[in-house]
Design goal:
Radius of gyration: 21 Å
Oligomer: single chain
Shape: globular
Largest sheet: 8 strands, mixed
CATH architecture of the largest domain: 3-Layer(aba) Sandwich
Distance between the termini: 34 Å
Strand content: 15-25%
Number of domains: 2
CATH superfamily of the largest domain: Mur-like, catalytic domain
Helix content: 25-40%
C-alpha cells in the first residue's frame, strides 16, 4: 500500500455524516484493533488532553516542554491543517508518507483478520499508537478527538489527564448542559493517574472530582497565571505551579488566553516528572512553540491573520485578540466559513464590527453554504457582504480589496484555514 492507497482506504472508511462524531458509545472496535497489535497504546506513558478549546495548543506546549527535557515525544492531534501526516508526529516532525502508508496497511490487514471495520478516526488513531511503539517514543501526548469518554483515543491509560476548559460544544452527543459535557470529558481521568484541570467553575470541578484519580490540580488554586503581558510577537508570562514561580517566560503566540493553556501545560509536565523544571527548559520549550492556523499572522501590509477557532467561545477569543491586541484602525475584512450554526458564529465573530464580510464554504461536505453564512451576516447588520464559495477565491478577493494598512481575519473553521494558508503565505512571500 502506498500513500495514495492509504488515503483511499481511509476515505472508504469515512462517513461524512458522522465523521468525528460519536456514532455509538463504545471503544470496543479500537480496543480490539489495539489488542490484536499487542496494545501499542501502552508502550509508553501518556499525557491525555481534552477540553472545549485550547487542547491543541496545550498539546503542542506540553510536547515542546517534554522535548526540551530530552525525551522522545510522540504527539497525536486532530484534525490536520493541510496534510494528514500532521496528526502523527515524533519530536515535532510529521510521520513520512511511506511510514504512514505502512501503518495504515497494517490496520487494513487487521481489519481483514479481526473483522473489525474501523472508522476513519479509529484507523488513524490505531496507526498512531502502532507507529509510536515502532519508533519507541518515551512519552505520548494524545489529543482527544471528541469529548473524551467514548473517544477512540480513550484506550490509553493516562499518567496525566489534562482538561483545558468546558464550553457548550457537541451538546448533541453529550447533553444540553455544561455538566453533561464535563462528565464526558472527565472520562479520560484514570484511577491511578493525575488530572490537571484548567476549568475554574466549582460545579464542573466537582464533576471531575467524582472520577477515581490519584491527584487533582486545579487552575487558580494549584497553578495559575500570575502575570500576562502583551509582547512583540506574543506574550510575556509569570506562571505559578505547585513548586515554583517561573518569571518572564516568553510565549511566541498571540492571545491572552494562551497563558491559561501554558499554565496547564507547565503544570502537566511538572506533574508527569513529579518535579519542577529547570528554568532554561521552560524558556526554551515555550520559546519553540509554534501554532500554525491558531491566530497565526501570515501576512503584513495588509495584515492577514488566520485562526481555526470553530465554535462560539473560540471565535469570541479570536476576534477579541484581533480587536484588542492588534487594534486595526483602517478597513477590517472578515473571511468566514463554518460547520456551525451560521447565526451563532457570525455573532461570536462580531461580524458587524467589520467593514467587509466575505462568506465562503468550508472545504468539507459538512461546511455551511456560503450563501447561508452571507444571509446570517446581513441579518446581523453587516453592510457589505460578499458570497464567494471557494475559500481561496474569497481570500484573493479580500487581498484585492485590502490596502496596505487594512487587516484581514480568516476564521470560523480549521477547514477554511487549511485550504487557504499556503496561498496566503505565498502571497506574502513567506
Amino acid at each position: 500500500m502506498n500513500f495514495d492507497e492509504a488515503l483511499r482506504y481511509l476515505d472508504d472508511h469515512t462517513s461524512y455524516d458522522v465523521t468525528g462524531r460519536i456514532d455509538s458509545p463504545t471503544t470496543e472496535r479500537i480496543g480490539r484493533l489495539c489488542a490484536a497489535m499487542g496494545d501499542p497504546q501502552h508502550a509508553a506513558p501518556v499525557i491525555h488532553v481534552t477540553g472545549t478549546n485550547g487542547k491543541g495548543s496545550t498539546v503542542q506546549m506540553i510536547s515542546r516542554l517534554l522535548m526540551t527535557s530530552g525525551l522522545t515525544v510522540g504527539t497525536y492531534t486532530s484534525p490536520h491543517l493541510e496534510c494528514i501526516n500532521e496528526r502523527i508526529q515524533r519530536n515535532g516532525e510529521p510521520i513520512s508518507d511511506e511510514e504512514f502508508a505502512e501503518q495504515i496497511a497494517a490496520i487494513a490487514q487487521l481489519e481483514a483478520i479481526t473483522g473489525v471495520r474501523p472508522s476513519f478516526f479509529e484507523a488513524v488513531t490505531a496507526a498512531a499508537f502502532r507507529w509510536f511503539a515502532d519508533v519507541a517514543v518515551d512519552v505520548m501526548v494524545i489529543e482527544v478527538g471528541l469529548l473524551g469518554r467514548w473517544d477512540a483515543t480513550n484506550v490509553v491509560d493516562a499518567t496525566v489527564a489534562v482538561i483545558t476548559n468546558i464550553g457548550l460544544d457537541h451538546t448533541e452527543f453529550a447533553g444540553p448542559t455544561l455538566a453533561d459535557i464535563a462528565s464526558e470529558k472527565a472520562g479520560i481521568i484514570t484511577e491511578h493517574g493525575a488530572v490537571v484541570v484548567g476549568e475554574t467553575d466549582p460545579h464542573l470541578i466537582k464533576v471531575f472530582s467524582r472520577e477515581p484519580h490519584a491527584s487533582m490540580l486545579v487552575r487558580d488554586e494549584d497553578f495559575a497565571v500570575v502575570d500576562n503581558t502583551l509582547a512583540v510577537g506574543g506574550r510575556l508570562l509569570d506562571l505559578r505551579t505547585p513548586t515554583t514561580v517561573y518569571s518572564e517566560v516568553y510565549l511566541p503566540v498571540h492571545g491572552a488566553h494562551q497563558a491559561e493553556n501554558a499554565s496547564a501545560a507547565l503544570c502537566a509536565v511538572e506533574t508527569f516528572f513529579a518535579a519542577p523544571l529547570a528554568d532554561e527548559v521552560v524558556r526554551e520549550g515555550f520559546g519553540a512553540v509554534e501554532l500554525p492556523g491558531r491566530f497565526e499572522v501570515v501576512g503584513v501590509q495588509p495584515l492577514v491573520i488566520v485562526d481555526g477557532a470553530h465554535n462560539p467561545p473560540g471565535a469570541d477569543s479570536s476576534v477579541g485578540v484581533y480587536f484588542d491586541d492588534f487594534r486595526p484602525e483602517e478597513r477590517r475584512i472578515l473571511v468566514v466559513g463554518t460547520l456551525r450554526d451560521a447565526d451563532e458564529m457570525i455573532s461570536a465573530l462580531r461580524a458587524d464590527d467589520f467593514d467587509v464580510v466575505i462568506a465562503c464554504t468550508a472545504a468539507t461536505p459538512r461546511g455551511v453554504e456560503a450563501a447561508v453564512i452571507g444571509a446570517a451576516a446581513r441579518r446581523a447588520g453587516c453592510v457589505e457582504v460578499l458570497v464567494i464559495d471557494d475559500p481561496i477565491a474569497a481570500c484573493e478577493e479580500a487581498l484585492r480589496q485590502a490596502g496596505a494598512d487594512d487587516a484581514i481575519l480568516v476564521a470560523g473553521s480549521i477547514y477554511v484555514v487549511g485550504a487557504v494558508r499556503s496561498t496566503l503565505l505565498r502571497h506574502s512571500g513567506r
